[in-house]
Design brief:
The complex is a heterodimer of chains A (336) and B (495). Chain A is built from 13 helices and 2 strands. By secondary structure, chain A is an all-alpha fold. In chain B, helix 13 (371-384) crosses helix 14 (401-412). The longest helix of chain B is centred in the middle third of the chain and has 16 residues, at 171-186. Classes of the chains: A mainly alpha (336), B alpha/beta (495).
Chain lengths: 336, 495
């Protein structure tokens, strides 16, 4: 009996979400059918749109892994946005003067190290001083945003450009891709998928991955199981930052070719949603990131219909809420 | 003697689950009547029916010759029936007197002087002493239990139902409680006692009703039945004996000298404890809860520091090892707080089987976890004490507490333990599983380990252990023999 009522409740939640989205669209007086179609399908409607979707997909995947990594250790790394920015900027700053494949490689490495360094204060404060990581990473985000915009408007600015940006990498110094007809799929997409695969394997199959998960699930039990909880927490934050920084550098050398003010359209923040939507399964980061990319691209398209861009946030938020309801729904046993 | 309470043909169903089936209970006035049985036998359910907190699916309830149908416990209270459940209902912020009167104030205006005089006369009748103006949080477990009983008398109860009243008491307090209960019964009150401690039944009660699996098994005069017979009735078959063993003198596996351990309240929870556990020996650590047992175990496990003193494991300095190294050296803990310290409830039995062992060589294979070995281990932990589950992939939190405990106990006895630290290892277990777990600890000892076991049930320690040490207020003493009276005195520092 309980199972039936649970199914009803979840069904009602889904129907309610759809009603809410339609009502939101009707409130903007847009043609509902057309908007929904654009929202979901524009990402696939042409080579330009699809390339744009892939360009969003890649950072969502890697930043999603960064958030997921910290989350598994019981940490909310809100600082992925800042670590991503710092990684992107340092990545460009290193790869610009070197150039070529070496530039790409060293840029990505430098970006990862920079991201890690940017996360380390938050990890240290959390593990050894008990300061909450949400507060410290939010503050580090502010510093990262202001620091990067200062640097691209000053020392790192391309003097020939009329707005705050670095010089661009030569096309030959950027990461290429495999052409599929009119669309070129960047190697970065492949790299992002490998990152997810390796991370998933590490988390599920290795002892250190196991210890990370135990620490996040029950730190007291972790301590009794002989796990160095503080060190595990500290390392998780550092690696999460390194992955985020790598994502920023990869975005720079594969898609943007430069660093500019507004380099990230909130990838690091959206990645929180990506990771939460993925639930407990790291491989689910891929479909989750894809959903974010598609809806993000679709939202840009529906602006033509006079629908605010924020509609994609509404849909994603509902998606997360419905998903969470499914994931955490429990039927309480009556008897012990 | 008149039958004051008669329950006849009581059946209680919760959905599909049958908690009681055609059970009867006949209680005579002026007696101490014990209701015994294993966990889940239906004792508490039966008592809640008598107290009006449950209406039975079938059956009749007769009190003082009148058939009753209680809609709530209010009806039972009006018939002068009172019940003290296992969990005390005392509000620590209120004074003892306020707690006593709570919900049963005489009239709308409180006359505290009269109330205190009346409370004092009730207490004197029972031989209790109370500081009525003191906050209830100053009471120990024994004081709280006494106050709960006075609450019943304040409500003029004549039929007292007590659910495991001595679970939290040291032997001396438990004995004192029975003296008071005897006095009450002599004055005409009737006491129905739910317990799993058989010595209490044979020493203090007149009649005993045995339940098993929701069915009535037997109703005897206590004088007609022996303790082993009673145990057999409860379990349903004869139990293996645990005769005292003669151990050859062996070297110490754990040697603790002058251990002083800081407690959470900022004072020393363990004060200069010196003791040994020898190879092959099962040492019981007796004491009332909160006298330093937890701090000692945590410090031996390496999650709490020694302030002073030393400890060695099989000749090796224990304190220089991290928790991980202690586990690798063979220290195993059956934790006090299973939920917080020993399992991850949402995770599968397999994943929980690895917990603590993840760095042991046999669990690793080429950089990763050896999943085949993990699966094999999980299955063997399940089998060892008959953990009831659908598969090793089931989450441990979905098992009953007793089944979780079986699994955790099996895990602690695996992978060549050298020192087993068991904190109430049989909590929530029935008689069968309790004996199996102690048998398991004995087997580990026979293979060269030593064991230190905390239990708040002294009779359990007396039955299964080779030797007993006692912690009272952080001070360690060693019992010279397995003598209940001597150990009981050590437990309250009255030697």
């Amino acid at each position: 009996m309980k199972g039936v009522s649970l199914a009803w409740r979840l069904g009602a939640l889904i129907v309610g979400s759809i009603v809410l989205v339609v009502a939101a669209l009707m409130a903007t007086q847009a043609p509902v059918g057309e908007v929904v179609q654009r929202l979901l399908l524009d990402s696939f409607s042409g080579p330009t749109s699809f390339s744009e979707t892939l360009k969003r997909f890649c950072p969502y995947v890697i930043a999603g892994v960064a958030v997921f990594w910290a989350l598994r250790a019981g940490l909310f790394n809100i600082g992925v946005e800042g670590q991503f920015l710092i990684g992107g900027m340092v990545g460009i700053a290193v790869s610009l003067p070197i150039g070529g494949f070496g530039g790409i490689l060293l840029g990505a490495l430098a970006g990862s190290v920079a991201g890690m360094l940017w996360a380390i204060p938050a990890g240290w404060i959390k593990a050894y001083r008990g300061g909450h990581e949400v507060i410290s990473t939010i503050m580090l985000n502010q510093i990262a945003i202001l620091l990067t915009s200062h640097l691209v408007a000053g020392p790192l600015m391309d003097k020939n450009a009329g707005f705050p940006t670095t010089a661009s990498l030569a096309p030959t110094s950027m990461l290429g891709g495999i052409p599929f007809g009119p669309v070129t799929v960047s190697w970065a997409i492949l790299i992002a998928m490998v990152v997810v695969g390796v991370f998933s394997w590490w988390l599920r199959r290795t002892v250190s991955g196991f210890e990370l998960s135990v620490t996040g699930a029950n730190p007291t039990a972790a301590q009794f199981a002989g796990i160095e909880v503080k060190r595990t927490v500290f390392q998780a934050m550092a690696w999460s930052g390194a992955v985020a920084g790598f994502g920023g550098a990869l975005q720079a050398v594969a898609f943007e070719g430069r660093f500019f003010e507004g380099f990230s359209s909130g990838y690091g923040f959206d990645a929180l949603g990506v990771a939460i939507l993925a639930g407990g399964n790291p491989l689910a980061i891929l479909p989750s990131a894809f959903a974010f990319a598609v809806l993000g691209q679709g939202a840009t398209a529906v602006q033509l219909n006079g629908v605010p861009k924020g509609i994609s946030s509404v849909i994603l938020a509902l998606l997360i809420a419905v998903f969470a309801a499914f994931r955490y729904a429990k039927v309480r046993p009556i008897h012990d | 003697m008149a039958k004051i309470v008669v329950l006849e043909g009581i059946t209680q169903k919760f959905g599909e689950f049958v908690a009681l089936e055609e059970v009867s209970l006949h209680v005579e006035q002026g007696q101490l009547h014990a209701v015994v049985g294993e966990n889940g036998a239906g004792k508490t359910t039966l008592m809640r029916i008598l107290y009006g907190a449950l209406s039975p699916t079938q059956g009749t309830l007769t009190v003082r010759g009148e058939t009753k149908t209680y809609r709530s416990s209010r009806g039972a209270i009006a018939d002068r029936i009172g019940m003290v459940s296992q969990h005390y209902a005392i509000i620590p912020q209120l004074t003892c007197l306020q707690n006593l009167m709570l919900g049963a104030e005489h009239g709308a205006i409180l006359n505290l002087q009269d109330a205190e005089a009346k409370a004092e006369s009730l207490a004197q009748r029972m031989g209790f002493k109370f500081n009525w103006g003191a906050k209830a949080d100053t009471l120990g477990p024994a004081g709280a239990q006494k106050l709960e009983i006075l609450k019943l008398l304040w409500r003029e109860a004549e039929i007292l139902i007590l659910d495991e009243p001595t679970a939290m008491l040291c032997p001396a307090d438990a004995d004192a409680l029975f003296v008071s209960l005897r006095r009450l019964a002599d004055e005409g009150a009737t006491v129905i006692l739910v317990t799993h401690r058989l010595p209490e039944v044979t020493e203090h009660c007149q009649e005993v009703t045995v339940l098993r699996g929701g069915k009535l098994i037997a109703h005897h005069k206590v004088s007609d039945v022996t303790r082993p017979e009673l145990a057999e009735l409860i379990v349903g078959r004869a139990l293996t004996e645990f005769p005292p063993r003669q151990l050859p003198a062996t070297e110490a596996i754990l040697s603790v000298q002058d251990a002083t351990i800081l407690g959470d309240r900022g004072d020393d929870a363990v004060k200069g404890a010196t003791f040994q556990v020898r190879r092959g020996e099962l040492v019981g650590l007796a004491g009332v809860d909160g006298n330093g047992q937890q701090e000692l175990f945590h410090a031996l496990m390496g999650v709490r520091q020694f302030q002073r003193g030393g400890a060695s494991l099989d000749g090796q300095d224990l304190l220089s090892l991290s928790t991980r190294e202690r586990i690798a050296a063979g220290v195993r803990l059956i934790a006090e707080d299973r939920h917080a310290e020993a399992v991850i409830e949402e995770w599968s039995l397999e994943e929980n089987a690895v917990l603590g062992f993840q760095r042991l060589q046999q669990f690793e294979s080429s950089g990763g976890l050896n999943l085949a070995y993990v699966h094999e281990r999980a299955s063997s932990f399940i089998q060892r004490f008959n953990t009831k589950c659908t598969s090793p992939a089931q989450s441990i939190g979905s098992l009953s507490g007793g089944n979780q405990q079986r699994f955790v106990a099996a895990r602690a006895l695996a992978e060549q333990p050298k020192l087993v630290l068991a904190f109430q290892p049989t909590r929530g277990l029935d008689i069968d599983a309790t004996r199996a777990v102690y048998q398991g600890i004995r087997e580990a000892c026979a293979e060269g380990a030593g064991a230190l076991v905390v239990s708040f049930d002294l009779d359990e320690l007396l039955e299964f252990c080779d030797r007993i040490v006692v912690l009272n207020c952080g001070l360690m003493s060693s019992a010279s023999s397995m003598d209940r009276t001597e150990i009981g005195q050590l437990m309250v520092g009255a030697s």
